[in-house]
Every structure is written in structure tokens, then in C-alpha cells.
Task: structure prediction
Amino acid sequence: MKKAFITGITGQDGAYLSKLLLEKGYEVHGGVRRISQPDTPRLDKLGVTRDVQLHDFDLSEMNNIYRTIEKIKVDEFYNLAAQSFVGSSWDLPIYAADTNGVGVVRILDCLRNFAPETRFYQASTSEMFGLVQEVPQSETTRLYPRSPYGVAKVYGHYITMNYRESFGMHASSGILFNHESPLRGKEFVTRKITLALAALARGGDAPVVLGNLDAKRDWGFAGDYVRGMWLMLQQEKADDYVLATGVTTPIRDFVIFAAEALGMDLAWDGEGVTETATDRKTGKRVVEISEKFFRPAEVDLLIGDAGKARENLGWTPEVDVRQLAEMMAKSDYDDLG
Ligand code: NDP
Ligand code: GDP
Result:
């Protein structure tokens, strides 16, 4: 039986990856940081909480990482933990650097000492492309991060490559474009939209207040992306791979897809911060804009080229953005029932 350790097991990807690995017969261990109200809603939702073994784990505590890796020997180690919300990283730049950057080398260095044969996956991100230097972006595109989150992830990415090259470790970095699901954090724009629209469809009257509707993202489904992570660690040689759909969609269109899934028919009016959307059927205000949700700096046109993953891993995403919006909107609607 193969063994795996997942940092960030309580997060969106941690839950989907746990489910996938359990289905494949793995013994799954996961790192959970200490918080005042411990619970595992995402693992609960996928019905896997009792099947995984949870351990205290914090990326900022070297001794804790050292003891964990010394004690629990695994075949595969997936580092999914991070301060993952870009928007907060301007308020928490040092914390972002410590967890998303230095945290990675803490793990790698312990693996190097105690478990050099363990295969390692690092959760890198399309945010590293930031002010994009070419469209679409691939593994060879020059990095130009635009947030403290992205800057810290660049360090994590390069130190993963460096440990692979310096010590021959099987360390791979997945440069993943945005991936969402009904388990996505509520502050991310997709989930914020589907939760608010589901509440409106259930009789509520609070519109969703958003920032830049013209920003675009290459959105895929988290379930497809964790399959790509696993595939990376099954290869004979470690490498870096982009996972993306290759389709980019404005925030405004995601709102429309979610609204349609909930039977709304939106009428748009105004522009910039005065733009609004109203449901023609009920007359309810569905979208408003506030300066508060605009960012100090935006990433540019993110579109991924996942050709290398398609060729080497046989990976392709199965859920498109419209299906994703529908899946999320319906799940939130059902949960509110
Ligand atoms: P989530 O925010 O859902 O999960 C992050 C996880 O990290 C949570 O389990 C969280 O614990 C844990 N965590 C945060 N800080 C620490 C810490 N100091 N020590 C230990 N654990 C910590 O993120 P996702 O599942 O969406 O993303 C997984 C990874 O992939 C992240 O590294 C993210 O940056 C990266 N990524 C995600 C993309 C996406 O679109 N989802 C795109 C590209 C990269 P807790 O539950 O206690 O908060
Ligand atoms: P990110 O790509 O990891 O930053 O994912 P987010 O879902 O947080 O943001 C995606 C895009 O949506 C960014 O370009 C934001 O500027 C834009 N956006 C517009 N309105 C909002 C909002 O209200 N909340 C969030 N989180 N993002 C918003």
C-alpha cells in the first residue's frame, strides 16, 4: 500500500486529493494547523474524514516539519498548504513569504535529510506569470508576479527545481491555473458569486458586491487538477507542468453562467463602479460594484498552455467553465435548502 502526506489537507485541493488517493488504495496522512475551532468541513463533505490520518502541522514551524517527516515515512508528499488568497497577501506579505516561500524549503530540506526517496509535489501557480510575458503561458514563460502571494510562490517554485537539480530529488512543481469547485474558499470570486446568487434564488435580497468584472481567469475544476498532481508524481522523472483549460473567461461571464444555472435572466446597466445587474424575472438587484474589491495590481491575461501535461501525462480537463459555474451554483443552492 502506498503512503502519501498532504499538507493543506483541510483545503479545497487537499480534500479532492485525499479522495482520489484513497480511491487508489493509498494510506493518506494529512497536516492540519492548530486553530481554536478545529473542524474539517471539506473532508466531511467528500465523506473521507474518517479514512485519513491527521497530524499537527504548520509550515512556519521548522521543528514540527522536521519531526513529522522523520516520523511518518511516505512515498509521496504533496505540499498544498499556503496562505492561498491573493487579495489578502498585500496585508500579510511577510506571512505569505514565510508560508508560501520559506515553508517549501523547510519541507524540502527535511525530506533531503530524512526521506530523499520521497516524491515531492509543490503547488505552484499561474499567479507567478502576473504581468504576462507571453500568451498563452507555458512552463518556459518568464515569470513576473504581481502580488506578494505570487512573489512568494516564485521562490517555492525555484527552490523545488533547485532541490531537484542539486540533490537529484524527485521534486515536481505544478503550475496550476485557477481551479474551483463547490469546496472553493468563500472569498474567491467564483464561490462568492455562486453563494450569493444561490441565496438570492432561495428568496434572499442581498446582491453580490464585486470588484473588477473585466478581469479574466482560466478556470478549471479542482477534481481534474488533483488528478494532474498525482500523475506528475507517477512519472519516472520529476518535472514542472502547467495545468490549465486554455480558455479564459471574464468575471462578468461567470456571473451570467451561474445566474442562468439558477434560472435568472440578467439585465446589465451602467459601467465601472456604477455597473449593476438585475434579474428581469424578479426585478431583484443581483450585482453591484465596489472599489473595495479592486486590487492594487492585477495579473494580466492568464491563459494556460497545458500541452506538455497533455503529452507527457495524458492529462486533460473534463469540466468546462460553464459546467463548473452550474455545479457550484447548484451545490450552494442545495446546501441552502
Ligand atoms: P485552500 O486555501 O483551500 O487551502 C489551503 C490549505 O493550507 C488549508 O488546508 C490551510 O489550512 C492550509 N494552511 C494555510 N496556512 C498554513 C500553515 N501556515 N501551515 C499549515 N497549513 C496551512 O487552497 P487550495 O486548496 O485552493 O489550494 C491548494 C494549493 O494550491 C495552495 O498552495 C494554493 O496556493 C495553490 N494553488 C491554488 C490554486 C487554485 O485555484 N485553487 C491555483 C494555483 C495554486 P486551514 O484549513 O487551517 O486554513
Ligand atoms: P485569484 O486569481 O487567486 O486572485 O482568485 P480570485 O477568485 O480571488 O480573483 C480572481 C479575479 O476576480 C481577480 O482578478 C479579482 O480582481 C477579480 N474579482 C472581482 N471582484 C472580486 C471579488 O469581489 N472578490 C475576489 N476575490 N475577486 C474579485
About this structure: The chain has two domains: 3-181+220-246+302-318, 189-215+250-300+327-335.
